[in-house]
Structure formats: C-alpha cells, structure tokens
Design goal:
Distance between the termini: 26 Å
Largest sheet: 9 strands, mixed
Strand order of the largest sheet: 1-2-3-4-5-6-7-8-9
Number of strands: 12
CATH architecture: Alpha-Beta Barrel
C-alpha cells in the first residue's frame, strides 16, 4: 500500500486532512488518522513530556538538552511502559503504521525488541534514521514489521540508503527523505542523486514552515516495476539511454 506514495511528514501537527495519493504522518498528540490516504502516528522512544514517569533514565545527552526529552533506560520498566502506552494508543485510535523516533539513542538489539512490540499489535513500522543506529543496521530493514524508512538531514543520503537496502535484501523498500527550514539544499541534493541513479521508491519532501509543520514535494517516488525487478540503465556509445527490465528495453 505504501509503494510509490509520497510521505507528508507532519509530526508537528495533531491533525491534517491528508491526501488520497499520500501517506500522512502526524505527531505525538494525534488522535485520529488523516481523512484521506494512509495515516501514520509518531511514537517517541524518549519521554516526550519530560514527565519523570518512565525512569530510570540514561544520562542526559544533546537531544535532552535541545528538546528536554530524557531517554528512558531500556533496562528498566519505564522504557517499555512509555513505548507500550503509545503503541496501545495508536491502535485504539485506528492507526496501522507508527514511526519510532530516536531509535539511534539505543542500539539495533533494543530497536528490534521495540519492533517486536509493534508486531504484537499488528502495527507496521517506519524505520527512522537507521544509518545512525549502532549495530547490524540491516536487521532493522529485515524485521517483519519494517515497511518504510524515514531519513532526516545529516542522517544519511540516497547512495548510503540504497546500499543498506541492498545489504538487507530489501531492494525496493520505500525510503523517504525529509527536511525542514528556510533552506532546502540537502533535499534538492538528495533529489538530484535519486534522479541521476534511477533509484526506485525514494521520495523527498521539505517543510519550509516550522519543524515538520508543513510538507512540500521535492521529488515524488517512482514505484518499482510490477515484477519487483529493478531496472538497469544502459548508455550506448551514441549517448542514448535505455532502461532494461527483465532483459527487454522499456520506452
């Protein structure tokens, strides 16, 4: 259902109508999926409200300093209560997809356990910034609950993400690059790389208004061929370009 669909990455918003042709991810306080298209819910592996209810906590770090969101220690009960409370809320509200933010605070082994908790509730996972997570990152994409990857600025690029898809044997797993701010140079660079290399099911959006309070399409993702086989590009001696799928040229 996600193939070829752009991602409206709107985690600063509680509600948005969505788009029939798109995936719309809403923030921590969302109560219902978007009316149109596919809905996803943001889940924070850190203490979103700095409530003090999910201890013990890991030592403060740069994210805690910037966002005032301490990190529950996965060795304690509070970490899992924080996760399970959010997952149960997403299920009750009718969401089928969740993104687990701040995966890179922890390692792959903990991330996989978090994905297991999602799978137990039949929730599918958007994998956030997998290239920052310590451990065998391929395992994150291989997990049965993982269905899409979200990559932020300075957290990866199309070439590195495509290489990770290949190593994970998830050649066409959807990847969505998201950024925010007054300058979209990184988003434009990602789009240029994707076009140059003909990468499939990679899309790029930018939020010029706030930290993910809006979403503008920079590059719409190209869906893979129906056969699931990746096309190859051949450049002839005359400079012509041919796209080959299943051994046959495609016009």
């Amino acid at each position: 259902m996600l193939v070829g669909k752009p991602l409206l990455y709107l985690i600063a918003l509680e509600q948005h109508p969505g788009r029939a042709d798109a995936i719309t991810e809403l923030g921590y306080d969302a109560r219902t999926p978007s009316e149109f298209g596919i809905g996803a819910h943001y889940v924070n592996l850190r203490d979103e409200r700095n409530s003090g209810r999910y201890g013990p906590y890991l030592p403060p770090d740069d994210i805690d300093e910037a966002y005032n969101e301490p990190a529950p220690d996965p060795g304690g009960d509070g970490f899992w209560r924080n996760l399970d409370n959010q997952l149960d809320r997403a299920v009750t509200q009718g969401f089928a997809y969740v993104e687990l933010d701040n995966l890179d605070t922890y390692d792959v082994a903990i991330a996989e356990q978090c994905f297991d908790h999602c799978a137990q509730r039949n929730l599918k996972v958007f994998v956030k910034n997998p290239l920052l997570v310590q451990g065998s990152r391929e395992a994150l994409l291989r997990h049965p609950a993982a269905v899409l990857v979200v990559v932020e600025e300075e957290c990866g690029d199309p070439l590195a993400m495509d290489a990770l898809r290949v190593r994970a044997d998830k050649l066409n797993m959807p990847v969505r690059f998201v950024s925010y701010g007054s300058i979209d140079d990184w988003a434009q660079d990602c789009a240029a790389t994707i076009r140059e290399h003909g990468m499939l099911d990679m899309g790029v959006t930018h939020s010029p208004h706030g930290e993910y309070a809006s979403s503008e399409d920079i590059l719409l993702p190209t869906a893979p061929p129906a056969t699931g086989e990746r096309p190859t590009v051949t450049i002839t001696t005359t400079g012509d370009v041919q796209v080959i799928v299943n051994g046959s040229p495609v016009s």
